[in-house]
């Protein structure tokens, strides 16, 4: 459940380059070179580069994650202590994107096999109704049993799982509340802030895209991000205050639009229709929904632009240039940063738009910091692609980092 607090919150981070650890995949051509390029441009100390030999696939096993990524990252962080605090890990092009669940044991595999055979038999009989049989389970219950025994709720992004590299042992099933999330401040949570790292990646469909993202980010920091912000809601702003799920996030798009109007021109669509093809020129910021794994070519992305789409599969790949998912296409078309899930995160798993765009547009937080305070859950499925130090706006005098949230949601 997400609780959004009914008071003003002031947050300040000011993350520095010396607090970043850069992780590359030495088996991926160009990964180490991109990492070194980024570090030089940002002034990150040379000994903060970690070269690992990892899978060339986008998905890695839980065992490989633990042994070949998590352990070396943990060791590197402790090697730099006590003189250097690491607050952020940046994964570079070629580091795997997803962590597979823990494989089921033999007993579970046998049960899964039996349940799958039962489902197959039912389909072959072409039953018209979802009736109980001798197992006492409906088809939906059978599928849920298979998912549970297969450890399906352990699916995660590498980035989100690695954010808890300092946390020691924790449950892998499902999500864990993020102690940095604005909506959880004041609650007693199982993991403290000092055990959480910001993890993001500089990644994309090819090396040139990643180099371009780095260069554009640095260039726009000097000039400021220019253009319009586009928010694509589906409904009018609700009169009801106690909002949950989709209604909460749709209302959050409305609130984000209102907040960002203090910074730039805003276009808000509150109809069920998506923005039309070529209908969004001069894009600086974007957030909207819902076109599942089907990018709509509505946008002319300005240099330094940032956008994300609220749908379930939008970061299921970053390597396939032919994919129609949103993250790949936002980066291909010119964006420098995006957010998306590697698999079904449920709507509550997304950064809340009003929080993310508030702190980003006020100019006191970097991209990575705004993401961290707007992200409800860790050990889950979300990914931030972009330079965590990116500050596309200069601070707005008098804002002071205040935010007001007056609704709540749960599931």
Automatic annotation (TrEMBL):
<feature type="region of interest" description="Disordered">
    <location>
        <begin position="121"/>
        <end position="141"/>
    </location>
</feature>
<protein>
    <recommendedName>
        <fullName>TIGR03790 family protein</fullName>
    </recommendedName>
</protein>
<dbReference type="InterPro" id="IPR022265">
    <property type="entry name" value="CHP03790"/>
</dbReference>
<feature type="compositionally biased region" description="Basic and acidic residues">
    <location>
        <begin position="130"/>
        <end position="141"/>
    </location>
</feature>
């Amino acid at each position: 459940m997400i609780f959004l607090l009914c008071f003003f919150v002031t947050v300040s981070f000011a993350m520095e380059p010396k607090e970043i650890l850069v992780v590359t995949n030495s088996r991926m051509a160009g990964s180490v070179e991109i990492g070194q390029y980024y570090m030089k441009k940002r002034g990150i100390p040379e000994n903060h580069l970690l070269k690992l030999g990892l899978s060339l696939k986008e998905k890695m096993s839980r065992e490989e994650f633990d042994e070949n990524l998590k352990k070396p990252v943990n060791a590197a962080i402790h090697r730099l202590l006590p003189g250097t605090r690491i607050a952020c890990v940046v994964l570079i092009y070629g580091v795997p994107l997803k962590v597979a669940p823990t494989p089921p044991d033999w007993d579970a595999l046998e049960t899964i096999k039996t349940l799958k055979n039962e489902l197959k038999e039912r389909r072959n009989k072409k039953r018209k109704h979802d009736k109980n049989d001798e197992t006492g389970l409906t088809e939906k219950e059978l599928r849920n049993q298979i998912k549970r025994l297969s450890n399906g709720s352990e699916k995660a992004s590498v980035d989100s799982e690695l954010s808890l590299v300092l946390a020691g042992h924790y449950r892998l099933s499902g999500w864990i509340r993020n102690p940095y999330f604005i909506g959880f401040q004041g609650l007693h949570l199982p993991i403290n802030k000092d055990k959480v790292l910001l993890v993001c990646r500089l990644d994309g469909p090819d090396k040139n895209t990643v180099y371009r993202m780095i260069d554009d980010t640095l260039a726009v920091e000097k000039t400021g991000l220019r253009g319009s912000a586009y928010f694509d809601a589906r409904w009018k702003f609700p009169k009801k205050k106690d909002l949950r799920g989709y209604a909460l996030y749709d209302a959050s798009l409305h609130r984000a639009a209102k907040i960002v109007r203090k910074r730039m021109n805003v276009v808000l669509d509150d109809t069920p229709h998506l923005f039309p093809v070529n209908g969004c020129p001069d894009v600086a910021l974007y957030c909207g929904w819902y076109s599942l794994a089907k990018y709509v070519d509505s946008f002319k992305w300005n240099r330094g632009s940032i956008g994300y789409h609220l749908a379930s599969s939008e970061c299921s790949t970053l390597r396939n240039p032919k994919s129609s998912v949103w993250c790949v296409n936002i980066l291909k078309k010119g964006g420098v940063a995006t957010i998306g899930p590697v698999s079904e995160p449920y709507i509550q798993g997304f950064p809340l738009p009003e929080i993310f765009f508030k702190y980003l547009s006020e100019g006191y937080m970097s991209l990575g910091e705004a993401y961290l305070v707007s992200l409800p859950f860790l050990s889950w499925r979300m990914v931030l692609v972009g330079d965590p130090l990116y500050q596309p706006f200069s601070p707005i005098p008098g804002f002071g980092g205040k935010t007001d949230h007056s609704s709540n949601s749960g599931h």
